[in-house]
């Protein structure tokens, strides 16, 4: 009987670790889609939408800001609807639902910006001893793990009762 309980516990732990891995895979796929959205919006902004702004370097500020904003909304939406769908409560009617959604979006944005800062700083630091491309890849992996953990434990925290 005791051996069966231990085996069941091991199987449940393995299942939880697998599910966590699947969630991280979903998070990575959403991030990849966000990269594509970012690149597309950056191109459209730079080449068409903000073409009236003087030199290309000057319009890059507006194009990049728009690309980051659209990609952030894209990633938040897909992570909320897919990656952490099991943790999102049904929207409350009226202002309470809007407030909860905005609070969650604020947390997501903050977690994303912290990840961006971590990637930036870590890339610069590691590039002193590694090739800058390798340094950036390592920093992206570290930042994605920290981003995932921040969103898993803070932004999309498992809702309490009620």
Class by helix and strand content? mainly alpha
**Helical residue percent?**
over 70%
Name the shape in a single word.
Answer: globular
Largest sheet: none
| Unreliable stretches | none
Mean pLDDT: 89
Task: Spell out the blueprint of helices and strands.
Blueprint: H1 2-49, H2 56-83, H3 95-126, H4 132-155
Helix pairs in contact: 1-2, 3-4
Condensed summary:
The chain has helices at 2-49, 56-83, 95-126, 132-155. With 162 residues, it is mainly alpha-helical.
Looking at this protein, list some descriptive labels.
single chain, mainly alpha, 162 residues, globular, 81% helix
Write up what this structure looks like.
The chain has 162 residues and is an all-alpha fold. The chain has two domains: 88 residues, no CATH class; 68 residues, no CATH class. 81% of the residues lie in helices and 0% in strands. The chain is built from four helices and no strands. It is globular, with a radius of gyration of 20 Å. It starts with a helix and ends in a 7-residue tail after the last helix. The mean pLDDT is 89.
């Amino acid at each position: 009987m005791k051996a069966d309980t231990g085996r069941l516990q091991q199987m449940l732990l393995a299942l939880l670790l697998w599910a966590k891995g699947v969630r991280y895979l979903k998070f990575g796929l959403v991030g990849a889609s966000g990269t594509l959205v970012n690149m597309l919006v950056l191109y459209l902004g730079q080449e068409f939408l903000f073409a009236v702004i003087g030199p290309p370097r000057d319009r890059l500020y507006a194009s990049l800001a728009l690309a980051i904003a659209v990609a952030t909304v894209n990633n938040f939406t897909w992570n909320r609807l897919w990656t952490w769908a099991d943790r999102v409560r049904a929207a409350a009617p009226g202002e309470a639902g809007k407030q909860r959604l905005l609070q969650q979006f604020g947390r997501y944005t903050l977690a994303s910006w912290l990840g961006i800062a971590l990637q930036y700083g870590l890339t610069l630091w590691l590039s002193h001893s590694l090739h800058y491309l390798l340094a950036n890849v390592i920093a992206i992996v570290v930042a994605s793990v920290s981003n995932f953990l921040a969103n898993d434990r803070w932004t999309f925290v498992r809702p309490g009762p009620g």
